[in-house]
């Protein structure tokens, strides 16, 4: 009887590993986001259309209950490029809200509740993601945005 109960519990734990939580998070990937991440590098398209690394620093924090906050500061802010979406003002980006993870499509969506750039408030910002060792590499899902950012665990 004891072995049967242990087997049933083990099967239930293994089966629940890939299901979504009550908040819609897939446990297999959502848990990997949780914690504080420092900005390792940020690449943006230059005038030549090629990706160039921008000198900056920042932090992205994901909580276990589905909240997130991001801040990025450019060392030498350039004039706004006039891209499809403005994320920063004066070389500084700050926003907070909630996030959901779709492990099947390797995307997470940042649901902006507050931001320095007020036009972002209330927007859902879907992002492609990839985990590589201690790194989280993120890029926009939009075809008209070509930036990439790499976050490393603290």
Please, could you describe this protein's structure?
There is one protein chain. This protein is mostly beta strands. The protein is built from 2 helices and 9 strands; from the N terminus they run H-H-E-E-E-E-E-E-E-E-E. The chain has an 8-stranded antiparallel beta barrel. The longest helix is centred in the N-terminal third of the chain and has 15 residues, at 2-16. The relative contact order is 0.18.
Query: What level of helicity do the residues show?
Result: 10-25%
What is the annotated CATH architecture?
A: Beta Barrel
Indicate the radius of gyration in whole angstroms: 18 Å
Mean pLDDT: 83
The span between the termini is 45 Å
| Rough outline | globular
The name CATH uses for the topology is Lipocalin
Give a short account of the largest sheet.
8 strands, antiparallel, barrel
Strand percentage lies at over 45%
Number of helices: 2
Tally of DSSP β-strands = 9
CATH level 1 class label? Mainly Beta
Counting structural domains, the number is 1
**Which stretches are poorly predicted, pLDDT < 50 over at least 5 residues?**
1-27
Order of helices and strands: HHEEEEEEEEE
Trace the largest sheet across and list its strands.
Answer: 1-3-4-5-6-7-8-9
Structural class: mainly beta
Write the layout of secondary structure elements.
Elements: H1 2-16, H2 27-33, E1 35-45, E2 51-54, E3 56-62, E4 67-74, E5 92-102, E6 107-115, E7 124-132, E8 135-140, E9 148-153
Antiparallel strand pairs: 1-2, 1-3, 1-9, 3-4, 4-5, 5-6, 6-7, 7-8, 8-9
């Amino acid at each position: 009887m004891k072995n049967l109960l242990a087997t049933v519990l083990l099967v239930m734990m293994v089966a629940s590993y890939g299901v979504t939580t009550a908040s819609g998070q897939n446990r297999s990937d959502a848990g990997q986001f949780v914690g504080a991440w420092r900005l390792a590098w940020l690449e943006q398209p230059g005038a030549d259309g090629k990706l160039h690394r921008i000198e900056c620093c920042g932090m992205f924090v994901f909580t276990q209950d589905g909240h997130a906050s991001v801040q990025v500061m450019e060392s030498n802010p350039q004039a706004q490029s006039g891209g499809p979406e403005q994320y920063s003002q004066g070389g500084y980006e700050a926003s907070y809200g909630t996030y959901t993870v779709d492990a099947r499509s390797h995307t997470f969506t940042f649901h902006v509740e507050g931001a320095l750039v007020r036009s972002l408030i209330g927007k859902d910002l879907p992002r492609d993601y990839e985990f590589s060792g201690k790194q989280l590499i993120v890029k926009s899902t939009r075809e008209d945005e070509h930036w990439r950012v790499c976050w490393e665990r603290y």
